[in-house]
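job 3f2a | input accepted
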Amino acid sequence: MADRILVPYDGTPQARDALELTFDEFPDATVIALYVIEMPDGRWAQLVGPELQLPVSEKVEEYAADILETATELATEYDRSLETNVVTGEPDDRIVAQAAEESVDLIVIGSHGKEGISRVLLGSVAETVVRRSPVSVLVVR
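job 3f2a | predicted structure (141 res):
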């Protein structure tokens, strides 16, 4: 059974479904909701790494806090506690890095069908996380 679970949370219905499933199926686990502030491609992409936290505007930080507040409200509805964390970088890289840093047993991630044939069934971030994760990944559709 998973004791520590990381749920990437961006406020989408898929992320909400992943968080709800986590609360339903893992009632005794510590749950961590992670919001990744995505940095644009280009020069910054060369600097992004597991240890680097790039500066972001106060408005972006407030937006991230608002998104995670919805996750916290959902946890309250389920009578659960929730840890939250905000990081910057490429979402797939940061999710995998956080799984290792937080010593989680499982990642529960929502599927996003955004583009291309392979993305219809599994979103590009979810697909990369599944391939690179150091722990098991449960994809919620």
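job 3f2a | The two ends are 21 Å apart (CA to CA).
job 3f2a | closed
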